[in-house]
Amino acid sequence: MTDSRIAKAHLGGDGPEVGVQGLGCMGMTWAYGPSDTGESRAALERAFELGVTLYDTADAYGGGENEKFLSPFFKAHRDEVVIATKFAISTSPDDPMKRIIRNDAPYIRSCVEASLKRLDVDVIDLYYMHRRDVRVPIEETVGTMAELVREGKVKHLGLSEVTAGELRAAQAVHPIAAVQSEWSLFSRDIEANVVPAARELGVALVPYSPLGRGFLTGSFSDAGTDLTDQDFRRTMPRFTGENAAANVRLLEPVRTVAEAHGVSLAQVALAWVQQQTAVHGLPVVPIPGTTRRSRVEENVAATRIVLTDEELALLEPIAAKVEGDRYPDMTFASAGRE
Ligand SMILES: NC(=O)c1ccc[n+]([C@@H]2O[C@H](COP(=O)([O-])OP(=O)(O)OC[C@H]3O[C@@H](n4cnc5c(N)ncnc54)[C@H](OP(=O)(O)O)[C@@H]3O)[C@@H](O)[C@H]2O)c1
């Protein structure tokens, strides 16, 4: 078993050591339609056996249901896993489609207590601000988060979808272990400002949706027709209609590289993200999401694939040609605010 375990990386500042690939747990109970609970639990255990230690959830994933679902797994392996959860996004009681974003101190304090309770643990290892509430100065928000560290409720701090300026202001208040933002062959906005700032400040990058929410694996070609009604990807501009038809054609170079290595498209997509560690000179720990054991094995195996310079060059033009935004509302993303 020792041989098959993945390499390790340190998150930023005094952040924890983690397996070089984490596991995104959102889809196990939320966002991408129904999933098999038993298989998701088996996927968690398999990931753990293979050396995955960073597990990603959020209070927003199903209104806390995802944290509750993960709690038994976390408790069974408490000292060996790094629990990452987030605050800031909730839905309106009157309209479940309406997102409410809050970063004020009373809200953060109520969120951390609720997450600790649902997870049934004494401390959260990595606590992220999920989205920026521009009504609250970032210094104030991170100041509140730093109080949680001093009080022993949280060990390390992270920020999701922040701009480079917000990251710099936050780091001046308290060390930030990781920025979690979308980063993949399809989504490279953060390379302009956020990645250089993170490198300069010694902050790690935790790329979310490194498989382009599954699109880069070739497993669906139009969310509007291929995915269920409950699947959030049906609302994402790049995965439906003419955009999806154009974007599917962009997978050809990924397929070429996959064939050369005798691996899957998913593995090429993950190897590319992992290799950004060397390209940009900072720790990069992607958190691919899956609900299946076999895909955990496949994804973890991608940490051992090294792409050549020629292959990186072949993949380089893809992102600039992607049609459609990452979100229906781009103010929800850092690149909408840089
Ligand atoms: N901070 C944020 O705002 C934010 C936003 C989105 C996500 N996240 C976090 O990032 C994690 C990962 O992102 P994501 O789940 O959106 O997208 P992703 O990791 O890019 O893709 C997940 C999708 O790919 C499929 N998949 C996984 N491995 C595969 C493989 N080897 N072959 C074929 N299909 C494969 C999964 O389906 P199966 O389950 O069927 O394998 C799932 O539909 C989430 O779980 C969440 O924790 C954070």
Automatic annotation (TrEMBL):
Gene3D superfamilies in UniProt: NADP-dependent oxidoreductase domain
Top-level division of the source organism's lineage: Bacteria
InterPro entries registered for this protein in UniProt: Aldo-Keto_reductase, NAD(P)_OxRdtase_dom_sf, NADP_OxRdtase_dom
UniProt EC number: 1.1.1.-
Pfam families xrefs: Aldo_ket_red
Enzyme class at the top of the EC tree: oxidoreductase
Keyword tags: Oxidoreductase
One function term, GO molecular function aspect: oxidoreductase activity
PANTHER family: AFLATOXIN B1 ALDEHYDE REDUCTASE (PTHR43625), ALDO-KETO REDUCTASE (PTHR43625:SF77)
The protein, known as: Aldo/keto reductase
